[in-house]
Amino acid sequence: MEVHLSETLSFDADAAALGDTLRQRGWMLATAESCTGGLIAAACTALAGSSDWFERGFVTYSNEAKHELLGVPEALITAHGAVSAEVACAMAAGALAHSRAQIAVAVTGIAGPAGASPGKPVGTVWLALARTSTPARAERLQLQGDRAAVRVQTVHLALVRLRESLA
Fold it and tell me: Which CATH class is domain 10-166?
């Protein structure tokens, strides 16, 4: 599956539904993104009025950024790798700790074409959600397609999982 990013960057319906739910609760969202490079935040802020429910986004592509901006322990990255449930959960928790948001989403993965390792093929993405009242939970996604397809699917699933978690 080859996807051209410019043809698929319309997440308005997903983001609008999420925004409506967050607005009704009076909640704010924070994002912590690695493999998507800020695309989740971009999908949210593409909507007029998103300042009512989108608090901030962290693009933490490097391991150093994960540590410096989100407080992800270097030992956690060393022990489990940047693409892991543990790091995704720490990223989501860090986004909450460094923002005024009540809910956060974090993604870290291998969009390809390089970067795969045994047990972590291209398309492996960890998506974590955290709330101020509950610990972070992570879900492993195994996505198909080229780099753009993996990133687009990750954004879509992040928005959907956020909304599902608020239902």
Answer: alpha beta
